[in-house]
Amino acid sequence: MLLGEGDPAGGGAPSPVLQAHDVSVELGGLPVLRGVDLAVQPGEVVALLGGNGSGKSTLVRALLGLVPLSRGSVDLFGTPLRRFRSWRDVGYVPQRSAAAPGGAKVREVVGSGRLAHRRPFVPARAADRAAVARALAAVDLTDRARDDLAVLSGGQQQRVLIARALAAEPRLLVLDEPTAGVDLAHQEVLTAVLADLVAAGTAVLVVLHDVGSLGALVDRGVVLREGRVALDGPLASLGARLHPAAGGEHHEPEPVDPHWLDGTVIR
User: Keywords on this record (predicted)?
Assistant: First the structure.
C-alpha cells in the first residue's frame, strides 16, 4: 500500500494543509461560490456534500487554481495559491472524462502522476516505477497496465485516475466523486487504500454524491447549498440535517483538465 507524508512534528497544533477564506467564484458572470471558508488538517478526511449545482466541483477546482477566484484566498501547506509550486504534494482525481485520451496506455496515465517528482525529460527512475506498480496494484489494475485507457470500462477508467493520484504519493489528496461508476467491491478496496494514507498523515478532501462505503473514513462533512456552506461538522453530528441539504440528482461529470491528466500543471 502507498503511504503519504504527514507534516513534520512540531510544537503546537499542526497547520492546515489547505486553508480557504471567503472563496467566491463567478462563471459567465453568475455567482457560483459565495464566501466559502474551509480548512483541512493533516490526516483529516473532509467530504464535500451537496445537491446538483451546489458548487462542489467548482470549489475543488478553485482550491487547485483551475478556475479563478473573484474574491478570497487559498493557501496550500501555508503558501498562497498564486505562489504554490510543490504540486508533487497534491494528488487530484477529477471526475472521469466523457472521452478517454486516444492511444494512452494505462501505465502511461498512472506514470504521469510521477512527473512532478523529477526534472523535465529525466527518465523514470526505479522509485517511480515502483510507485506506479504499487498504485496499479492498489486499485487492482496490474493486469491492465499495457491496455489502452479507451478500452476500459467507465469504472476502470475512474480507478486509473485514482491510481495516477496515488502514484504521486501526495500529502493532500483531492478526489471529485471517486466512486462514481466503481463497483462496490472496488469501492471497498479504495476505502482501505485511503485508510492507509490517512493513517500516515495524508489529508483527503473528497466530493461525494453519496457517502456510501467511504463514510467510515470521513471526519467532517461540509454541505454546500447554492454556493455557500450550509453545514460543517462531524459527519455523525449532521444527522438528519444532512439529507435535505445534500440531496439532489447526480450530475454529468466535468471534462478532465488535461494538465492534470498528463501530469503537467502549468502555473
Answer: ATP-binding, Nucleotide-binding, Transport
